[in-house]
Every structure is written in structure tokens, then in C-alpha cells.
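TA notes, week 10

Several of you asked for a full example with nothing omitted. So below is the full record: C-alpha cells for the whole chain, then the designed sequence directly under it. When grading your own attempts, check the secondary structure regions first.
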């Protein structure tokens, strides 16, 4: 079940009033629901709140990390993401048994080349399974929209603004060549969901995943788990066939399952579900690549960039 809220901890006081009542409701009904929500990164600084969420069975939380580049975060006004180590924040939330999903954006003003590589490196280090990437979009009536409109850099009317989408180019003129940004984006997106790399990072992530805190309140219910549906069994068999036999991931797949079964058995089911998520991205990698390349082909040629040493005096040979 999704708690639809841009920032569940935007009002921590109210969240902490709600969670004990929600926990009691879950206990009385043997935890029929798991929850997902969105929160700011500073959730990681509140141990009490993370524990309360974990005991209510919040299985996952989406964080708008945006970028590991501090300069870009400051320009975007995401100052809460610069107050502490983003990597440590992800690890603290994960330690409570709450799976982190994260959003990343490429194309900020002043962004240096290699932004896509830096996102891939960060995601690989933290192990975040679901790393959602997109190119920066200026949304109507936001501060960014009005600034770019004033600077004459918007290339879409309000009625045409598509919002954040993984197959959209930027809707404004960026500070570095749009083709460089788009190519970095496609390369990073495809690398994040390359089957072998995905298994490696998900395995790394679940070695750090904390135990499900809510299970201690329903010990009797754990032994009465319902039999899986045919749909679930069929989905599992598809994943086993594709990742465990058909692809060159087969040895990684089985080694990873054995590793998590040994070191974190209470999270094995969630681990398998997370591995299955990559089946969607195998097809979607091709969609993203094709649609971005089509949009790039339709763009007019960019003016040549001045060489970095254009203002330097020629030196004698």
C-alpha cells in the first residue's frame, strides 16, 4: 500500500502521532499490509522515526537524492542532501529493514562532464536496487521554470510540458551540450540495469539490509503464510529460467541466492522479488535508448563549442 505523500516526514510530529496507532492496527490484524512512501533524505537522522516506520511495516521509501554532486544539489536547493553523507544516510535507512528507492537527475546548470558515471558509481557503492533516472525538466510555475523563462532558455510552452519522464530530453537549453547529457544519461541508465551489474548490486544491498522489525509482533502468523498464487509461482519460474539458466547471469544468480539465504534469510523473499524487477528494465533499456536517440536525431545541429584554450596565447614550438 502506498502512502501517497511527497514527503511523509514533512511534519515529523504528526507522523510520530500516526505511526503508533498504525502499528497497533497492524498488530491486531497480523500485519495484512506493507507500506511504501516518499521522504526526504534527512529521515536517516531520526532513529526513532525509522524504527517506528519499520515496526509498522514500511518496506520501502523513495528518496529524491537527485545527484551525488554537491554543487548541483546546492544549485537545485536540495540543501538537506548536503548536510551529511548520502551514502551513510542510505545505509542507515537500510539497516532498519526499509528498502531505499532513489531518484536521480542529470542536466543541472553548471554540471560537469561525467555526471552519469558519478551516478552509476554512487548507486553501485550503496547498492540501491531501484535507481530511477531522468533528465532535468522545468515544470510550469516552478522557480526553475520562471528563471529559465526569464533567461530565454525554455524550449517548451506550458501546455507542452511533459513532466519528469525517462524518455524525455531536457525542455530547456542546458549549460553543456544536450547531446553530451543525453548520451551520458542513456549510457548510465543501461549500465545500471545490465543484468550482471544489477544482480551484484542487489546482492550487495541485501547483505546490509536489516531484519524486518515488524515480524517480532506476529510470531504465530509467520507460520501460517498463505500458499503462493499460480501467478506468483509462474513469475518466479520465469525469473529462474531467464536469470538462472538462459542468460550468462546463471552462476551469479545461484551464488547470490545462496549468499542471501545464508546471511539474511528473513529477507530472501524480498531479495527474489527485487531480482525479478530487472525483467521490466531489460525491455525498458531498449525503449529509453531508442526514444532518446530518435529525439536527438530530430534536433538541429548544435553550434560548435569554443575550445577550452581559445583565450590562451599561442606558445612557441
Amino acid at each position: 500500500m502506498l502512502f501517497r505523500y511527497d514527503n511523509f516526514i514533512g511534519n515529523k510530529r504528526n507522523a510520530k502521532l500516526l505511526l503508533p496507532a498504525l502499528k497497533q492496527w497492524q498488530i491486531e490484524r497480523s500485519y495484512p499490509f506493507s507500506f511504501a512512501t516518499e521522504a526526504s533524505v534527512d529521515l536517516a537522522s531520526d532513529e526513532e522515526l525509522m524504527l517506528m516506520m519499520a515496526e509498522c511495516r514500511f518496506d520501502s521509501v523513495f528518496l529524491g537524492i537527485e545527484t551525488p554532486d554537491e554543487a548541483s544539489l546546492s544549485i537545485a536547493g536540495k540543501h538537506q542532501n548536503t548536510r551529511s553523507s548520502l551514502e551513510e544516510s542510505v545505509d542507515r535507512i537500510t539497516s532498519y529493514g526499509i528498502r531505499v528507492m532513489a531518484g536521480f537527475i542529470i542536466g543541472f546548470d553548471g554540471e560537469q562532464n561525467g555526471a552519469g558515471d558519478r551516478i552509476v558509481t554512487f548507486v553501485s557503492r550503496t547498492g540501491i536496487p531501484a535507481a530511477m533516472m531522468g533528465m532535468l525538466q522545468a515544470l510550469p510555475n516552478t522557480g526553475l521554470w520562471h528563471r529559465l523563462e526569464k533567461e530565454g532558455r525554455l524550449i517548451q510552452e506550458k501546455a507542452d510540458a511533459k513532466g519528469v519522464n525517462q524518455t524525455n530530453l531536457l525542455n530547456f537549453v542546458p549549460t553543456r551540450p544536450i547531446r553530451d547529457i543525453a548520451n551520458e544519461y542513456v549510457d548510465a541508465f543501461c549500465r545500471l540495469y545490465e543484468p550482471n551489474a544489477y544482480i551484484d548490486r542487489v546482492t550487495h544491498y541485501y547483505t546490509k539490509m536489516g531484519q524486518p522489525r515488524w515480524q517480532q509482533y506476529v510470531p504465530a502468523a509467520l507460520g501460517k503464510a498463505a500458499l503462493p498464487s499460480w501467478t506468483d509461482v509462474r513469475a518466479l519460474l520465469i525469473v529462474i529460467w531467464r536469470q538462472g539458466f538462459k542468460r550468462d547471469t546463471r552462476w551469479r544468480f545461484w551464488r547470490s541466492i545462496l549468499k542471501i539465504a545464508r546471511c539474511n534469510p528473513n529477507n530472501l523473499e524480498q531479495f527474489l522479488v527485487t531480482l525479478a524487477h530487472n525483467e521490466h528494465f531489460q525491455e525498458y533499456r531498449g525503449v529509453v535508448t531508442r526514444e532518446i536517440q530518435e529525439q536527438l536525431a530530430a534536433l538541429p545541429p548544435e553550434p560548435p563549442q569554443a575550445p577550452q584554450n581559445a583565450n590562451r596565447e599561442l606558445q612557441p614550438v
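Confidence is low (pLDDT under 50) at residues 306-317. Use that as a sanity check on your answer.
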